[in-house]
Fold these 2 entries.
Entry 1:
Amino acid sequence: MSAPLFLVRLRNAYRWHYDEVKDMSSRVAAPIEQAFRTRTAAQAYIEGRYPLDCSPFDSQGWHTWQGVMEFSHPGEDHQEEETPEEKEEEAPYVPGKGYEVVPDESAIVYEEFTERVLSLGLPPVETPLTDANVRTVLPAWWRRAQPQMTEAQRVALWQYLDPEPYEIVEVEAYQ
Amino acid sequence: MVSTMTAEVVYIVQEFQWEYNDEWFDLEGDTPIRAFVDRDMAEAYQQRREAEARASFAQSGPRRANFPSFFGGFPRMSTLSEAAFQGRLQALGLPLPPEMPDGDDIAMDLSDDWWEAVWAAVTPDLEEAFWGLFDRLRFYEIVAVEVQG
């Protein structure tokens, strides 16, 4: 007899150990954070971890999110603390593209993003959104729009992380 | 009143992904494949899958090739010290690696000739123990996780 089980875990790409050491001796011992009986409960758990007061579109938000993940995995190896200069040099999050130093020039994801913003009932983003202006437009838009944002809207924006740091993996549980 | 309720624990069997990086195989990730309420069931399943994976890996070519060269050197495959490794080989009645010049050790390499010789001496009843020397070279693991909600 079996029943589905929904596992919440950090995606492999977010486990620094793989990138730095690639050695089983230093891999994350238990990267599955929680298990739930329903996908809804698993999704709610992930959403509850977003730092909703922070912008997902600048490095401050990203570092806060990293902090959330570090807190959930105490005692593991972490990357060395970056200097403030290094943090400033980091590229902001680009919707649909991830944290790229040089964002892709494609404008399609930007169009999708601006449409999604409107569908969420949020103030419009300055358009056209381009590779040249995305690093200033989105953080500024967040500062302007966030005082009126509901929690659900903030969650929806955080879900633009691509890929989201957490994923839900469904397995069958046998007894 | 003291609560006696405890969270239910399940045992997840995860499969490792080893990927070739043009020099050796690296551990690139893991995928949960099945969960069990009973730890013994999880271990039985994990052991069966591990044996299948080893057999498949051995038949696909590298068995006769030099494992350490496929996995980036001995330390990436085993937590054993050189002395412990040699002691375990001796206990199994298997050939020892050739002595290394002063300053070198088996951490760097294990020769193809020795590898050929040792595999020729590994009878089916010794295979499990031989694989056990390479405790970092695994295809499956079990992770215990609490179930919420």
Note: Residues 66 and 112 of chain B are 6 Å apart (CA to CA).
Entry 2:
Amino acid sequence: MRNPEPALVAAVLIGALLLGGCGPSIQQEVPYLAQVQASRMKVRGANIRIRFARERPARVIAGELIAADIDSVWVLSGDSLTAIPSLQLPRTSIELSEGVEPWLPPLLLLQRPDPWSWPKLARHARFPQGIPPGLDRSTLAAP
Amino acid sequence: MGRFQRAVALALVPVLLLTSCATLPRELHRDLQPPKHASRVDSGAPYLIAHMRDGHAYVLDSWTIDEATRTVAGRGRLLDARRTAVGGGDAYTIPVDSVALFETNVVRVPAEAVVIAGLTIVIGIAAVVGLAVLAACIADPKCFGSCPTFYVWDGERMKLQAEGFSASVSPSLEATDVDALPRARPDGRTLEVVMKNEAPETHVVRYVHVLAALRPPGGLVYAATDGSFRQVTRVIPPRRCSAAEGDVTEALREFDGRERSSVTDSTDLAARETIEIAFAPVPEGEVGLVLASRQSLLTSYLFYQGLAYLGRSAGAWLASIERGVPGALNQAAGIGSVLGGIEIQTLAEDGTWRRVAEVRETGPLATDVRVIPLPAGALSTTAPVVRLRMARGAWRVNQIALAVLGGRVEPIRLSPERVLKEDRPDEDARSRLADTTRALVTLPGDTYSIRYRLPEHPERYELFLETRGYYLEWVREQWLATEDPVRAATMGARPREALRAMAPEYKRIEAEFERNFWGNRHAEP
């Protein structure tokens, strides 16, 4: 029988390693990620903490991320819905987390994000499509 | 691959299986698709969220999207904008166009990790199949890389005359390289080019063409730095070349293998030096500077030392270049930018130096010759003076001359007529080299004899080698001993500082490094 080409042997080895070696481990789910995945079924926004470090005393807005668009980032804190103009984002640092444990580990850390960072936030919001038109914003708080 | 290597490879597969894939990272991949891209929704996701325009959301754990009726059918829950359940366990049929966004969440191995794993496995396989090569490398500095090397008959022997795409160290850096073959002596109308893989590297060769450019009567053709091929009717050698060590005219007058080189600065590898060249008066018209040069081993040292500092994360770094991570390539290019190429300056009529070009041909093995067209008026015609400015110890210069430029010439591009491997015709390799959409992959030790059929009267043609491809370095096991993330980061973020810090280290090994390297059969430029 003709000896296999080195490239073929390499390809077979790579295939064997990826399929045989990695396959079972790919199926294992990391508990934290599985938890985040399950919690998203509630279709709530990520926990967000926006810190205005330059203000004295430093102002912090924390709550559920409702939506983010080119104009504003919307945060629900208790019954209060706050809109932070996107132009203010460079003056902040932002932490995001999803799942049962609110702040560990953070999903996203943004230091002085530019105003164009809103799409990064929007995908973790309750309404990734933006605030629905005609929505009564006073009814957003959890019952 | 030899029997021994294959046996070792098979024996070590279980080891790799146990070690290489155990720690692949995972990520939660959230995908959002607008209704017009409903067909792109991941049907394997454990649940689908349909965000409705009015703020409601359906969470479906079994669903189908019907492209024909533009509906989503499934079972699950409906949540209002407050996320209070308004229905559960029910069957729903939802018009796709009433949905604002579809969302899926999947835990997966990120694509980058697969790339890294692939590179790691390649490195692992390299360690297995290349054991003999690696063992030899420990004692052989030649193994500091070579990219594909090309040997062509010079009338006496097969001589190293070109190295292909030396800067293409990653798939996304695939590039075309043109090297002059002024010493090639074809056998009648047949030109044999021997391509070798002589280092622990994987070479992916897209093509190897020979370019034949018609010379003007009594003249030459040079590849120009603007990508054209220029006929040259007269070459004007230098009258006097002055460097820090004194008169170096003899070394630079002819393309004869005698080179002018220097050693690096002991405190700063980016420290500059100059060579000043005076010429006899030149005629009016377009003039170019002929420069034959190659790099010293300094850039090779810096590249491999950088990979060594990266150590186990070298694969991740290469993968980041492939993914186009912003800054990854800039980090890699930082050292090269600070080190620079050969800057060409001309002395204008008003006595000021004017920077007119910079040459950056990569590769320490084969000397390349090219012509740099000089801008009109950049050079005094009565007392032309040119200055080369470059990093000390970084370049070996073989020839400098002025050329009176003629017209542009379009070379004839020749594909391989025949390819032999181990003296046997290899039609698959030939077809791969002839088809620019495919590639020939070579491993250490591979040697191909590539034959070309030249045009009639081959003596009337100047020959060039045009190669395209990229190569992958195999991280050598011994490099991991010097893994140092802080130094690697310094090289990327603060290259000037790194070049100062590394200067004493390189200085300690410079003489021996060069002597050992050129002591082997690659030594002759």
Note: Confidence is low (pLDDT under 50) at residues 1-23, 112-144, 520-525 of chain B.
